[in-house]
Structure formats: C-alpha cells, structure tokens
C-alpha cells in the first residue's frame, strides 16, 4: 500500500488528480489509511503497539509526500487554489437580471383580477379574421379591417381575400380571446386575458406598434352594466391606489352594445384607460350562445397606460428601449 500510494502521489499531474489521490488514501471516511486503522482492533494485543507505530510512520510519510506533491504542482496551500488569487480584493458583483416592468404589471393585474374570481385565458398572437373580426361582429367591409390598420402576414396581399377563411394577421385586440373562450366553454364565464396586440402606429410617447391589453369577459344570467362598473372600479382602486372614481362615456364597438369608453379619475385628472360594454347579441350568436338566456360584459384596458400612470412613466418607448438605466428602476 505504501509503495502504491507513493507512486500515485508522484503520478498526479494536476490539482484535480492530486485531490483524487488524496481522497483515495487520506480521505477521512473511505481513505485506504482509514481502512488500515479500522483493522487495528483485530490485531493481537501484543503486536498492536508495534503496528500502531508503523501505521503512524506510514501516515506521516504519506502526508509529507502529499505536501511535496502540492508544492510540485504549485498549489502551495489548499489543493486547487490559484496561488495568484488574492482573497483580499473586492469581488465582482454578478449582473442579476430582473422582471420587466410590463411583465410585473401583467402579473400584478392577474393577481388583482384573480382575487375577484377572474381566471386567466390565452389566445394566439397570429389570428385568423374569424376571431379578430367576423365573430366580433366586424364585417368584411369594416374600416377596422383595412390593411393600413393591421399587420397582415406577408402571405396576405393587400386586396386579397379578407373573408372568414382569409389571411392571417397579428391580432389587433385581445377581444379575440373572448371568442376563443366562448367557443370552448359554456357560461358562467369569468376570464381575463393579458397579452400583446399589434397595430401599425408610428411610435411616439403614447404609441407603439406592439402593446398589451387586459381583456375581461363575464357571461352569466342577469349580468348588468352596474356589475361592469363595480368590477372596474374595484380593480382601479386596487391597482392605482386610493379610492379611484370611474366614468363611462358613450362610445361604439361592433362587439358591445351599449359601448363605453372607461375613464378613471386619478391625481385630479380623468384619464381614458380603455373600452367596454355589454356583449352584443350578434357575438353570442356567433359562438352558439342564446342571447335570450345569457348576458355579459367585456372590457379592454391598455396595460402600458396603467403601468405608466402608476409608475409615472411618460414615454412608452422607454419600456421597449432595452435601456438598463431605465429598466433597473423597477
Ligand atoms: N377591443 C377594444 C379595443 O381594442 C376594447 C374593448 C374590449 C371594447 C372589450 C369593448 C369590449 O379598443
């Protein structure tokens, strides 16, 4: 064993293999030396003293061989430590990433609406005209379907087929998810959908060609506009803080009737955050619901707008600039 171990220590040619050899012979638990030590008990008592001395001799020899190998490999101190390493120098702090402010907002909105019993639903960002328009009561000749106002996929030529089976586009609103949910489920329904939408707007302080919406849909028997107003007011109070007042202004959307613009009174100003209304009977018919039996409300709020108001952000482009000096503040 002695000879074998001396050869092994000599053969170690880097810190890793030296460490392996050290564990093999000097390891506190399974090292060969430990094995020998364990056998001491079974030695005849009259021989035990001599054997113990021999073992100690072996131990110190092997220990010094180990240290010699360490010196030879330049380890000096602890095995595997770079001798040029200066532990007194200040460390380099690793760059930790964190969650983007819009993702934080999405999570926060989901949590607030979740407490009111709304569960999250999702839909694809590349949509067909049925879900983005037709089922939402937006007919073929409606200006909202204009190629100048939508990102049709490259396979779609400007004046090609814009019918139900027509060309795909990047969804321009999360109202598409209302249709997808109702097509697959029966009332009662209480969902929100938070996701990206796309419109070919020139970027400025308040516009960006990609932004996020929070869509809400509540369908049951006897749902009223008062329910809509209460849900939105409770939501705004939770997200923006304080007792936020809410105002509805008459508006028009093809998929709601009546339709309203939603304003919140915040820091003394009435600010528009999105649109809402009672689900249009034509939409219920498109998904196979009986408009005589169920009623519902829907709303769509701008996520960036909510996030920007809450955090005092004045330019939407900052959110998507990737500038860490900006992003690190959240
Ligand atoms: N989809 C509408 C928009 O993008 C908002 C909306 C959603 C209005 C739901 C009414 C109901 O402007």
UniProtKB/TrEMBL annotation:
Enzyme Commission code(s) on record: 6.1.1.20
Subcellular location: Cytoplasm
Gene Ontology CC, one term: cytoplasm
InterPro entries: aa-tRNA-synth_II, aa-tRNA-synth_II/BPL/LPL, Phe-tRNA-synth_IIc_asu, Phe-tRNA_ligase_II_N, Phe_tRNA_ligase_alpha1_bac, Phenylalanyl-tRNA_Synthase, tRNA-bd_arm
Cofactor note: Binds 2 magnesium ions per tetramer.
MF GO annotations: ATP binding; magnesium ion binding; phenylalanine-tRNA ligase activity; tRNA binding
Name of the molecule in the record: Phenylalanine--tRNA ligase alpha subunit
UniProt lineage: Bacteria, Pseudomonadati, Planctomycetota, Planctomycetia, Pirellulales
């Amino acid at each position: 064993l002695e000879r074998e171990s001396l050869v092994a220590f000599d053969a170690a040619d880097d810190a890793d293999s030296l460490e392996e050899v050290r564990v093999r012979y000097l390891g506190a638990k399974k090292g060969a030396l430990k094995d020998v030590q364990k056998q001491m008990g079974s030695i005849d008592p009259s021989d035990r003293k001599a054997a113990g001395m021999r073992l100690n001799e072996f131990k110190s020899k092997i220990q010094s061989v180990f240290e010699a190998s360490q010196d030879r490999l330049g380890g000096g101190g602890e095995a595997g430590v770079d001798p040029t390493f200066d532990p007194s120098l200040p460390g380099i702090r690793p760059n930790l990433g964190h969650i983007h402010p819009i993702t934080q907002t999405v999570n926060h909105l989901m949590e607030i609406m979740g407490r009111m019993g709304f569960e999250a639903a999702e839909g694809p960002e590349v949509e067909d005209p049925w879900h983005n328009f037709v089922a939402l009561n937006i007919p073929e000749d409606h200006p909202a379907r204009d190629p100048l106002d939508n990102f049709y996929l490259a396979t779609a030529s400007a004046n090609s087929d814009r019918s139900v089976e027509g060309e795909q586009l990047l969804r321009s609103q999360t109202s598409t998810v209302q249709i997808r949910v109702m097509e697959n489920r029966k009332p009662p329904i209480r969902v929100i959908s938070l996701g990206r939408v796309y419109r070919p707007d020139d970027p400025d302080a308040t516009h960006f060609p990609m932004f996020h919406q929070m869509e809400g849909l509540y369908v049951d028997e006897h749902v009223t506009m008062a329910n809509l107003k209460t849900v939105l007011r409770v939501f705004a109070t939770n997200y923006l803080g304080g007792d936020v007042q809410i105002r509805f202004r008459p508006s028009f959307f093809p998929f709601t009737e009546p339709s309203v613009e939603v304003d919140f009174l915040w820091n003394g100003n009435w600010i528009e955050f999105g649109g809402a209304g009672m689900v249009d009977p034509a939409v219920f018919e498109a998904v196979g619901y009986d408009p005589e039996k169920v009623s519902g409300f829907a709303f769509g709020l701008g996520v960036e707008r909510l996030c920007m108001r809450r955090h005092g952000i004045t330019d939407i482009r900052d959110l998507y600039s990737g500038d860490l000096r900006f992003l690190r503040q959240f």
